[in-house]
Amino acid sequence: MGDSKQFQQFALLPKIINGGIAGIIGVSCVFPLDLVKTRLQNQQIGPHGERMYTSMFDCFKKTYRAEGYFGMYRGSAVNILLITPEKAIKLAANDFFRFHLRTKQGALPMFRQMLAGGLAGFCQIIITTPMELLKIQMQDAGRVASQAKEAGRIVPKISATSLTIDLLKKHGIIGLYKGTAATMLRDVSFSVVYFPLFATLNDLGPRRNDGTGEAVFWCSFLSGCAAGSTAALVVNPFDVVKTRLQALTKGKGERSYTGILDAFINIMRYEGPRAFFKGGACRMIVIAPLFGIAQTVYFLGVAEFLLGIKI
Predict the structure, then answer these.
(1) Cα-based distances in Å from 232 to 128, 211, 255, 281, 297
(2) pLDDT band at 9 (very low <50, low <70, confident <90, very high)
(3) Is 193:236 a contact under the CB 8 Å cutoff?
């Protein structure tokens, strides 16, 4: 019994490392799309229907023209730095809760799968909230600066380091956790949808011939992409609210919100229900390859190779 438990704890290490590797590769590949998503979500429609970006492609074009190639990666350093502990917590927590929520017969009913996913999403917000807060300021800085330039004003350049120091000086560690409730709403909801959906889709596919009982690679890859993009679309309204609440610097004439409910009410009142799906296509396109890449890293057994573990 002790040997079994020891093996389970040890086997968790490669999962954590694979999650971190997948996160870093994924962020590097799809970050420009995530930046476009943030700018589209933070963009508020003017009283006469005016807007800076008319579509995802328009935002890409204008951002690249104004800020160049490296401008598309604003805020990526924060994301790459914190994505490993975030993935480690999420994967470890989901495995932990799935293991302990099994019935005496070893089954894991759908409700318990959803509960395990939700608890994993809850655990990750300790890293996700400050990561998202800093990332959003960096990603949205170009949009705010462009608006200020048109109005004849100058917005000083910011860096993640200076922003962190400023928030710590003014508000202490709590300053880095602005929007925690909204982040929890998004991440818990996402995990509740993603993990059970992935497990269900993955179980439908053919198994490997190596006796492990695991799904073949293409099935896991497609299941990850489908579950990730579906969960991303479902929780997009929560992501829009979270992004608006965490944007510390607003453009001229843009509304501020006092909380989640106030954000929901005012977005609906002034921009309509479609506003809750701003950046939805971008988010789906971002999430699908992220989880596809994660499945690729797991399938190749990168961490196992580095650790010298036979699989």
Answers:
(1) 16, 33, 25, 9, 21
(2) very low
(3) no
